[in-house]
Amino acid sequence: RPGRLENRRMSMSSASSPARTNGTKAVSTAHLALFMALGAETVFFLTLLMAYITMRSQVPWPVEHSFSRLAFPLFNTGILGLSVLAVWRAHANIRLGRAARLESWLIVSLLLGLLFIAGQVYEFNRAGLKVSDQTFGAVFFILIGFHALHVLAGIVILTINSFRSHWGDFSAERHVAIEIGTWFWYYVAAVWVVLFAALYII
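Above: the chain sequence. Below: its structure as tokens.
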């Protein structure tokens, strides 16, 4: 009997090993795909920043560097920072198996992301630049507009994850999509910090 029981345990263990191995490969593949995508996006953003630096040395920059001018962009940056905190809380809660709190924090981060986008639209109109302007078309519109597209992509990811969370798709052992969405949102926030410094402070 002990021998049969031990053999059965070994059989079950060996049968479950491929599943674990396949699961590990799936997670690694998802993370690798994310890193490759973000690497390509980083190269694109750096290219735009280099174009901005070149143009900045040749064309007068019409955006005033004053506290009153920076007040709203700073406020909007704070909104994005709060959304990062909410995403972090969502990820931390699902790692602890708190699915209900995951959904709540995802919704909070989603709403803050939408508020940030609304702030960006307002900033476009408030900047006093036009799409036909050289500086706007080459720098302000492309850099901030392209970043806004990434924020919208992050909002789509957050929306999908929110629905999946409501349907009970995530657990402490299975939440790869939450990790991918969290890291993508971190990247969006980090890129914005660089753009904010380049466009409003330097």
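The chain has five helices and no strands.
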